[in-house]
UniProtKB/TrEMBL annotation:
Protein name (record): Acyl-CoA dehydrogenase family member 11
Record Pfam families: Acyl-CoA_dh_1 (PF00441), Acyl-CoA_dh_N (PF02771)
Cofactor requirement: FAD
Annotated family: Belongs to the acyl-CoA dehydrogenase family.
Family annotation (InterPro entries): Acyl-CoA_dehydrogenase (IPR050741), Acyl-CoA_Oxase/DH_mid-dom_sf (IPR046373), AcylCo_DH-like_C (IPR036250), AcylCo_DH/oxidase_C (IPR009075), AcylCoA_DH/ox_N (IPR013786), AcylCoA_DH/ox_N_sf (IPR037069), AcylCoA_DH/oxidase_NM_dom_sf (IPR009100)
Keyword Flavoprotein among record annotations: yes
Domain Acyl-CoA dehydrogenase/oxidase C-terminal: 268-415
Acyl-CoA dehydrogenase/oxidase N-terminal domain ranges (all copies): 34-147
Organism: Paraconiothyrium brasiliense
Lineage of source species: Eukaryota, Fungi, Dikarya, Ascomycota, Pezizomycotina
Keywords: FAD, Flavoprotein, Oxidoreductase
Length: 453
């Protein structure tokens, strides 16, 4: 039995705040330790092996990942993300999983070795939450077992991606099948043979008076006739092989009606259920990416071969302050993410939407600056493949857009806060009334303040 005594002085728990440590159950402590050992001993040393194998077969999952996935599954490290209210869950809370996910994030593909990577996390949770037993047998269980991979297809090139009610790919639902026509962006590449299903959101009832009931979500097998990948979409110049991001055309793609999830017109209900934890999984992993950038910056600060004016660059005041700012920013953003995870555990995804949005907005923006400072410490070398910093920075920039752009989340937060304004006006009016009473008592002339007379 693992006890909390094992947490003290343990590097696996060094960055976890005391209030979170106090909430960790023995099963979580055990898994966090396992994940830490896994990433440190299996993934970080293999980064250059991964790159070398990827050069040989660009759109095939590197053999090192395939081998590690088998090993991780045997050790019970698969699917740790799935919240403990699902029967298929390994048992962790969102808060407990956050501690694991940060460690996984230290290597970009580290989560993949544990079947905890995007879009699998969101897709598996979606299927676990909304599918029938028969659908789970067909799609959920193979995904959880790592038999194949999946894609989530929602964004379109001809529509405003920040307003999902405009999703326009056409779905004609008949008694036996669904016929699909249109275009999509993103969704993992078909170039990788492991990618076998798309979870697709489309418009099946365009004339419905309620725009939130016009759309349907269903599963499309990747080899369905009429589904064509136009090209891989590079992200900031990277192709992100071996999974990548595709641009697709659906031309009279036909799938059985039983591939519909939950029912026609219920896509938004599904999307909101999927995006709660999924929105901050990226942020959890990004904390780990930022920690890696920070550590690389410290390594560079005391590189003996590079001492301008005979000093380590870590001895210059400007870099001492830079390191301090990086450290404090990462610690602050971790608290934001952990708070969101804890809020979801205590109050549910819907009640926690402010904390989720806060993470989604603040964390990528703040950590982009941290990673940028690490690149600056390395100088020109920091912009090259000599370090993982450029790819880490690009991932952070991508997270600002993934699962919705900053502005959409800020607008939602702002609208929710505006709904509280009248309550604060009423409180201010009570302050004013009481102030006037005090003026009479002390024989003073009332003055206008706060714009309230």
């Amino acid at each position: 039995m693992v006890t909390k005594i094992q947490v003290e002085g343990n590097p696996a728990f060094a960055r976890i705040p005391p209030w979170v440590q106090a909430k960790l159950r023995p099963i979580a402590i055990e898994k966090i330790q396992q994940v830490y050992d896994w990433i440190e001993n299996e993934c970080v040393p293999a980064e250059r092996i991964y790159k070398a194998q990827l050069k040989e077969a660009r759109w095939t999952t590197p053999a090192i990942v395939t081998e590690l996935r088998k090993k991780a599954k045997a050790q019970g490290l698969f699917n740790l993300f799935l919240p403990n209210h699902f029967e298929e869950s390994p048992g962790l809370t969102n808060l407990e999983y956050s501690c694991c996910a940060e460690i996984m994030g230290r290597v970009y593909w580290g989560a993949q070795t544990l079947n905890c990577h995007a879009p699998e996390t969101g897709n598996i949770e979606l299927l676990a939450k909304y599918c029938t037993p028969e659908q789970k047998k067909k799609w959920l269980h193979p995904l959880m077992n790592g038999d194949f991979s999946s894609a989530y297809s929602m964004t379109e090139p001809d529509r405003a991606s920040s307003d999902a009610t405009q999703v326009g790919i056409k779905m004609e639902i008949t008694d036996k099948e669904v016929i699909i026509n249109g275009r999509k962006l993103y969704g993992n590449c078909k170039y990788n043979d492991e990618m076998q299903i798309f979870i697709l959101m489309g418009c099946s009832d365009p004339n419905n008076k309620n725009p939130w009931n016009r759309h349907t979500t269903l599963v499309v097998p990747a080899n369905t006739p009429g589904l064509k990948q136009v090209r891989n979409l590079s992200i900031m110049g990277y192709d992100w092989a071996p999974e990548g991001h595709g641009e697709y055309i659906y031309e009279n793609v036909r799938v059985p009606r039983e591939n519909i999830i939950l029912g026609p017109g219920r896509a938004f209900e599904i999307a909101q259920g999927r995006l709660g934890p999924g929105r901050i999984h990226h942020c959890m992993r990004l904390i780990g990416q930022a920690e890696r950038a920070y550590e690389l910056a410290l390594v560079r600060c005391y590189e003996p071969r590079k001492k301008p004016r005979g000093k380590f660059i870590g001895e210059f005041d400007s870099n001492i302050e830079r390191i301090a700012e990086m450290r404090m920013t990462i610690d602050a953003m971790r608290l934001v993410v952990l708070n969101a995870a804890d809020t979801m555990d205590l109050q549910g995804n819907k009640a926690g939407r402010y904390a989720i949005a806060q993470s989604k907005i603040m964390v990528p923006n703040a950590l982009l600056k941290v990673i940028d400072e690490a690149m600056q410490i390395y100088g020109g070398q920091g912009l090259t493949q000599h370090t993982p910093l450029p790819e880490i920075w690009t991932y952070a920039r991508f997270v600002r857009v993934a699962d919705g752009p900053d502005s959409a989340h800020r607008h939602q937060v702002g609208r929710d806060q505006m709904k509280t304004a009248q309550g604060f006006r009423e409180r201010a009016e009570k302050y004013t009334a009481r102030y006037k009473e005090l003026c009479k008592k002390w024989n003073l002339e009332p003055e206008e303040f706060w714009g309230i007379v």
